[in-house]
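Can't paste images in this forum, so I'm doing it all in text. The chain is below; anyone willing to post the predicted structure tokens underneath?
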Amino acid sequence: MDTENVFNQNVDFLIQARDEVVYNNQLEQQQKQLKEKEDKMRKAISQEEKSIHDEIATTIKKRKAEIESTYDNQLDASRKKVKKAQDKKDKEKSERVGQRVDEETAGVKENSRELKTELKTLFKKNHVPAFCQTSLYYVLFMPKGFKEIFFLLLLIIIGLAGLPFGIYMLFSQVVLVGTPVAAASWFMAVVIAAVIVIVLGLYFLIFNLTKVKHRDTIAEGRKIRNQIIANEKNIKAIKNAINKDKDESQYGLGAYDAKIEQFQSEMDAIASEKQAAMKEFEKNTKAAITDEINGRRLGKLEEMKRQEEAVEEERNQIENQIKEVSIGITNKYAKYLGKNICKEDVLNDIIHIMETEQIETISEGIAIYKGEAPHKVQATEGE
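Text version of the structure:
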């Protein structure tokens, strides 16, 4: 069919073209709907796959946690038994160690008690003040050993430096605060000197009234105190030796050791069972859980995939039909009339013009549609 013959065709040619264009549009609409349906189905399939994967992961995690929790609870119970037995053992051992210390230091303690009685009696018999028996007195007036000499030096620093300065600060910032005399350097010197004189005066007064007056008794008291101190060191050494003694056989704690060993064996057995259970879980249980969930849910997923494949196949068929119809429209109509004419609304308008105005040829109908020729109705009225 040549171009001249096409444009000389009547309205039936355009009606046929319009029907094929309408059919092509329907196919394209159907294809669009199928594409949307396919996208929704693919999304649903993806969500279903994720849901299956999540259920498998969650179930495996939950089952594993339940197994671990069961064994951990048993291990915790056994640990509590071990701790309880160990606490009882430690308490019993502490009591028996205390008894052993008391037994092995009884003689030394009795000797110290007798020495203290002797010291008290000696001072009372010779009318020496009771405070002369104290550790502070002997540190001040008859020190012996590094410890007592160190404390004596510390007391000297406090008495001859710290105390005078403290009293000066008390006077200058509390008692005489705001007065000019409190700020004078001579005032500081006077206060410090007075305190030093008082401290030294008291020291030598006590020295003369006690040590000088009761020299022999004080010296004898020093000897007795040295024996008491030696006894205290001996008691401490005995305690340390007993506490460091690793041999517990003498305390009769075998029953506790047996219980602790039994509970430890229970813990080892539970730990081994837990390890075996976890290996079994990793090796077989995880696969069984996965198979169970897949067996329950994969049928639905496969059916969804089959439906999606069917929709995809139908869409492909529609696409092929669209391709054939579009090529047919192009070859039969568009290559003569042009793509702009081969549209449903345009063809309807031209067909309407040709039918209502009784136009015989397509070329005349197109010319009127484009405004290149007047409508016949208007031309008739003009005449």
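Residues 379-383 have pLDDT under 50 and may be disordered. Residues 70 and 274 are 9 Å apart (CA to CA).
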